Amino acid sequence: MSRIFFIDTAIPADRKKWGKHKMHTVFDGNKVFKVGRLTELDAKEIYIDSLLPQIYEELMELIEKGVRVFLLRNTRLLKRLREENRVKKSDEVDAKLLSMIPRNHFKQLTLRELNLLRLIGEYERYVKWRKTVQQWMRICPDPFKECVRRLRSLAEHHGRKIIREIKNDESYATIYRLACDMIGVKDSVEVAILVARLPLNWKLRRLKGLLGLAPYKDNNRYNHKLREYLSRLAVNLYLNSKRFNKTELLKEVINNNKGLRTLEIKILRVLKKAWQQRRYMLAGGQ
């Protein structure tokens, strides 16, 4: 047995079907079967179609045991293979099709990367809870003041940890530093999360579509969370422009009275440029 598995991942408790549990669908090269947890597999390598927050801990446990974990870079390859083979979408079909995709279309995941994604998830949770409690405060303010203060403190603490992880990760550190310099900020958790989560290898037009900044044929790929980080960064820059170094990016937007959407697009271009500059450096450029 090769101990190499191709897996169509699933959320352990499917919220769309309350009370039911979805299982991961696994193809080992010969047969298809299901497992409740990825850690049940005696694996050497696993290839997964998607990375869900609910399975971060399972993947981290596997990597700690020496299992190599690979993530499909572009899920559109599965759709293309289904069309070419004239098969309908199903968990079993997708698990088998994963085995047909060349290995260079997968990205190996690391403990540091998964830990960073877990921190981002916890940060998002505290921010969401704080917003909810702030809404309760409008009705009855006094009992929730300390709760809001504590949630704000936890979010800020996780924000600092995210920035520290980004700075210590050679895959992201240069992009983050270049982007902050071009934007004109010292540190920013929004920049850190965008650097970690945005697929900056995409063309700019696709990135705009992902963030809802331009029409794009894959409208279902619009990521509200990433757009929220981009919008929050643009608002902070615009409202606090006197505090920040006025880079060319800020000067052009403020002096010409351009809107926040223009600033969001310019920030996105800065992130893309920072990614391109890092690639140039890795290729031997100065």
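[next item in queue]
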Amino acid sequence: MKKLEEIKTYIIKQKCEYCKDGEMEFDCTVKVINHKEYFPHTCNKCGDKELYNLKYPYLSYFTKDGNKINHAFGSPVIWVQELGVKDV
């Protein structure tokens, strides 16, 4: 039997380490270095460019008591839709 739980959603952003004012935005490209994927980002204020192993910004989900939800088995949105909840 499935159960519905309320969750908290957070957006994780990367601040620019150069100007300390802007946020890093994903450039929609991928660079492969030594068989690892890196994602170019550009600061929306100063234009600084950096490579990260994650795409910023991204969403992170937590239960009401603060436990992070493991995404290994699918998206929480899919779980809610499977329960037939409307307007998610």
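[queue empty]
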